[in-house]
Predict the structure.
Amino acid sequence: MFKKYYKQANDDIETNRALIDKIFEESEKTTANKSFAAVYKFGMAAAAVLVIAVSTTFVPGLLKPDKTEVAPENIVRIAKDTPQNKTADVAIKHEEKNVKNKEEISETAKKTTQVTKSEPQIKYEKKAEAVTNAEAVKSEQKQESAEANPSIQPIINQTEESEYVEKGNAPVLAMDTATEQSYAIPERARGGGPEFRPSLETKEVSLKDMTQVSQEESEKIASCLEDGLGKENPSTGGQYFFETDGKVQVDGEVVYVGSWSQMTDDSHLSKLHDFVLNESMNEMYSCIHSEDGTLLGNTSNNLLEK
Amino acid sequence: MFGHIHKREIHSNIEKREVVEKYFDMIYKLALSQTKDRDSADDVVQEVFLRFLKSDKEFESDEHIKAWLIRVTINCSHNVFSNSWAQKTTPLTEDIVFDTEEKGDVYYAVLELPQKYRAVIHLFYYEDMSIEEISKALKSNASTIKSQLSRGRKMLREKLEGGYGLV
């Protein structure tokens, strides 16, 4: 219905098609200006080249002489660098010394440059090494935790899917199944056993204290659940949507609350489960919302388990 | 003799005109949903198509052109709202009158959404684009688009009594 009304509303909106001609007029103006600018630039460049050519051809002495050739008779130039009372020989020697000094200076400069350049280089390399080490440690830890927890695979199989189909494609919440089962506490939910057991069927968790999750958290959860449950329904091809409503504290642990839906052919979202998910994102249980704003969950069936 | 043309080369003015005519309404309505104001929408549309006409970009297909136009429209619309004065004073478009209450409710409810959710809702429900197409057009992750779509729908459910069929 939403889609229908939204489409109709947009179809009713008249667009300002008179703008099309205006757009093309504006475009032609800009093209003309562009051509003029190009010609102008070319002209300026040509003029600059001409000026340089003229100045180098007709103004003598602007071109610098070759430095490698020391013209002994050109004492005037050498004498500029030396005290005026020295002889030409001394002047030449002084010139040679100057050259040597310059070479030494350039070598020293090179070394200095090398040292200067390598310092940040060294710092960068150290930093890169530290990051690489951190990443290596992180990946090792990740591998260890992955080995500790079993790998997850979609648990919705054809049988379960057919149950939904038989019920006329109506959204069937897990609560319908849960009510058939007793809310007796499964053995592992009574304490002991693995880390997270939010025995929600016995513990009332108020959603009034629920806090929001950021978009990044929400996307991370959706991505994780897609990895575990798949991106779409294998039977119908309907895309899965994992919406996180918020998070609450259960026995000191963070638990995410959300809903798992599936897109139908007419862009309608059909809810499959309301769920709770632990912080490690390896345990997901379907649940129902009671009228007083609490959660009741079926902890005997981890939706993320094989 | 004639090699296979891999790129959608738009050289002639006739072809450019065809593209503008084809996508004008789509871009206008998207711009209107983003800017919530006809004058701003006019400016955005002009800017988008002027950029298109000036662009030397080689497009691979019509879908590529469409995605490019959508992305530029969203960016230009953001520029309108980057001016903080515009944010405070630009009114909701109330000069658009619909013949049924439902159309008005639904349309204005979408206009009240944050800009990024509005774009996704509009492209998904009005342009019938898939999540993948929207993510390519907006150069965004598919999971981000899904998340924005979900949040947009949630907000619409809250705004629209009865949800108008939204779960």
Q: What stands out?
A: Chain A touches chain B at residues 1-3, 5-10, 12-13, 15-17, 19-20, 22-24, 26-27, 30, 171, 215, 218-219, 222-223, 226, 239, 241, 243, 261, 267-271 (CB under 8 Å). Residues 88-148 of chain A form the longest helix (61 residues).
